[in-house]
Amino acid sequence: SDTFNYATYHTLEEIYGFLDLLVAEHPQLVSKLQIGSSYEGRPIYVLKFSTGGSNRPAIWIDTGIHSREWVTQASGVWFAKKITQDYGQDPTLTAILDSLDIFLEIVTNPDGFAFTHSKNRMWRKTRSLTEGSSCVGVDPNRNWDAGFGLPGASSNPCSETYHGKFANSEVEVKSIVDFVKNHGNIKAFISIHSYSQLLMYPYGYTEEAAPDRDELDQVAKSAVTALTSLYGTKFEYGSIIKTIYQASGTTVDWTYSQGIKYSFTFELRDTGRYGFLLPASQIVPTAQETWLALRIIMEHTLNHPY
Amino acid sequence: KENFAGHQVLRISAADEAQVQKVKELEDLEHLQLDFWRGPTHPGAPIDVRVPFPSLQAVKIFLEAHGIGYTTMIEDVQALLDEEQEQMFALRAWARS
User: Fold this and answer.
1) Strand A101-105 to strand A43-49: parallel, antiparallel, or no bridges (unpaired)?
2) Which one of A4, A101, A168, A272 has the largest count of C-beta atoms within 10 Å of its C-beta?
3) Cα–Cα distance list, B92 to A4, A14, A171, A279 (Å)
């Protein structure tokens, strides 16, 4: 994995090959779990980074739930390599992994991602068929059972923010829901999107402040400060509804409703010059700066058990 | 494979709530095939929309007719996609050799 090219975009096959490579190189630290199969039958893989123990408190990170946001899957690949490089080297990460497990799902929407490579680079949703409509796909970030169907999503199957016929209708979402419920000990959940350069916490479907808003705001502020310190990339932070727009049925509103206090959503580079077409030359700097923010959130989770 | 030649990404600046609503009207016109990268939310928040070439003129006339400001963020989406593909293939060829 030292010669893998982290500064270019990769296909689904290349990323899945990378997962196996990393597991083969670090069998004591990394394992690959299949948490389900996509609508079109592709395996859904999660990397588990663990230094021992069973069912330890854990941190979940996912990228690529919106398939066209290519810098996020590419950053996820870089994060995976970084964890294997820094365990035993970086005291903060070593302390985190000596007590917590890290789960990293890099291609959270494999059907959509494959479709961006084969047919339509602008594809965002899943590839499920909706009975009675010629339009395809559900927005997997509107399909969660938290404010599902409320304003902030569309009931039109042709819309990019179509929430689906019912909550968890998308197997890509249901697979994570089942994993989180079965694990039962996830303490932080970070879902990574692009673009707009934002770090957000619940809620998205209501103006009501989350009970842990003050703490989440403080953690977000520290994380954004760390991120900006590397290259000066400016991020805003706050609740989803206040920072970007009303969005219902979102991932982190559901994880927060499950008691996972440290629930965050990132919107990575850029602010719109290239949008989803971020040049590959920005992959590594984007991943590097985001990593600094992730470390802050993970360290806070380690130091504030609940 | 979908081709995006001539598609542009516009950044729309809605100055007030009325203008936000006007842009939302655009969002509902499915025949325009608009792809909102950042949807209309509140005044002052950037609205980014990919506009297919056949809809470009209509959209620009609509925005200008309602005094809604916009700039062109991406002149030709396909040109950027071609660059992205070339970069991927070039590095893949290098890796193979």
Assistant:
1) antiparallel
2) A101
3) 11, 11, 32, 16
CA–CA–CA angle B10, B14, B19 (5° rounding): 115
Which residues of chain B lie closer than 8 angstroms to A10, CB-CB?
88
> What tens digit of pLDDT does each residue of B3-30 get?
999 999 999 999 999 999 999 999 888 8
Confidence check: pLDDT of B96 > 70: no
Contact A273 B48 (CB under 8 A): no
Cβ–Cβ below 8 Å for A122 and B50: yes
E runs forming strands in chain B: 8-13, 35-38, 47-51, 69-74
Task: Name the minimum distance, in Å, from the CA of B60 to any CA of chain A.
Answer: 19
pLDDT tens across A54-92, in order? 889 999 999 999 999 999 999 999 999 999 999 999 999
| CB within 8 Å: B91 and A245 | no
Closest partner residue to B84 (CB to CB) among A161, A271, A277 is A277
CA distance B94 to chain A (A): 11
- Alpha carbon B8 to its chain centroid, in Å, reads 5
pLDDT-derived band of residue A238, with 50, 70 and 90 as boundaries? very high
Find all residues with CB under 8 Å of A212, minimum gap 6, and list them.
Answer: A261
Tell me the residue type at A31: S
Residue type, A42: R
Tell me what ipTM this predicted complex has: 0.94
pLDDT tens digits along A25-38: 999 999 999 999 99
Which residues partner with A32 through β-bridges? Answer: A47
* Residues in chain B within 8 Å Cβ distance of A9: 84, 87-88
- Whether B4 and A122 lie within 8 Å, measured CB to CB: yes
Catalytic residue numbers of A read: 267
Tokens of A305: 């058990």
The most distant pair of C-alpha atoms in chain A lies apart, rounded to whole Å, by: 55
Which residues in A lie closer than 8 A to residue B9 (C-beta atoms)?
275
